[in-house]
Specification:
alpha+beta; six-stranded mixed β-sheet; 3 helices; 6 strands; 41% helix
């Protein structure tokens, strides 16, 4: 009986230790961070068509309402993918990456266009909510396919 209780105490202590050590790992930026799309009512005062906001635990693609097109979203997601690969974000840093000018050459794959248009349509239908420092706007978790 005492060995059984002692086993439970050791197991509980181990779980507590693992829970405490796992939390910092969860907050670290990684290629698996969730991506959110947002369109604020008031776009940041930047000369940009989109902005990437990278912070521990999530990445946000901020789109200018007047430039929220499948092509702009595709470019922003491509830049985010490259940033994640080439410039991993330290766990204690945040980063803003304005995407100013670009020329979209070629055309989107039809399936990709449908996916991006659907995400933008869903984003436009979302209710207005508080986006923190961005003020009011719309946001949506983005699911890559």
């Amino acid at each position: 009986m005492i060995a059984h209780v002692r086993g439970h105490i050791v197991f509980a202590a181990l779980l507590g230790f693992l829970a405490c050590t796992a939390l910092p790992v969860l907050g670290q930026a990684s290629p698996n961070n969730p991506i959110f799309l947002s369109i604020p009512q008031q776009f940041p005062d930047l000369d940009a068509r989109a902005v990437l906001m990278r912070e521990p635990g999530r990445d946000v693609v901020i789109l200018k309402e007047s430039d929220a097109t499948p092509e702009t979203l595709r470019v922003a997601l491509a830049v985010l993918t490259r940033m994640r690969r080439d410039h991993p974000l330290p766990p204690d840093l945040a980063q803003l990456v304005p995407i100013t000018g670009f020329v979209f050459e070629g055309s989107l794959d039809p399936d990709e266009r449908v996916q991006l248009e659907a995400a933008l349509a869903e984003l436009e239908e979302r209710p207005l909510s508080n986006l923190g420092n961005l003020g009011m706007g719309r946001w949506l978790p983005y699911r890559e396919h």
